[in-house]
Specification:
76 residues, mainly alpha, single chain, 5% strand
C-alpha cells in the first residue's frame, strides 16, 4: 500500500509523518478526530486539507498499529 499523501522529511516537523509535505501532522489530524471533530469541521478549519488527506491519515495509522506492538492498559 502506497501513501502518496503522507510524507516524512527529517527537516520538516522533526521527521514526523505529515500530510502532503504540509506542516500538518498525521497525529494532529487523528487527534482532532479523536477529540470529536467531524470530517467537515476539519476541512473547514484547515481549508488546505482534502478529504483524501484525512482518509490517508487514517489508513496510515491503521497500518502503523498493525506493524508494531502497542502497549495497552489491561482492565482492572
Amino acid at each position: 500500500m502506497g501513501f502518496e499523501r503522507i510524507t516524512i522529511d527529517p527537516t520538516r516537523m522533526g521527521g514526523v509523518p505529515c500530510i502532503r509535505d504540509l506542516r500538518v501532522t498525521v497525529s494532529m489530524v487523528l487527534g482532532q478526530l479523536a477529540g470529536g471533530a467531524t470530517l467537515e469541521q476539519l476541512l473547514t478549519d484547515y481549508p488546505y486539507l482534502e478529504s483524501a488527506d484525512v482518509t490517508a491519515a487514517l489508513e496510515y495509522a491503521a497500518m502503523i498499529v498493525n506493524e508494531r506492538e502497542v502497549p495497552i492498559a489491561r482492565p482492572a
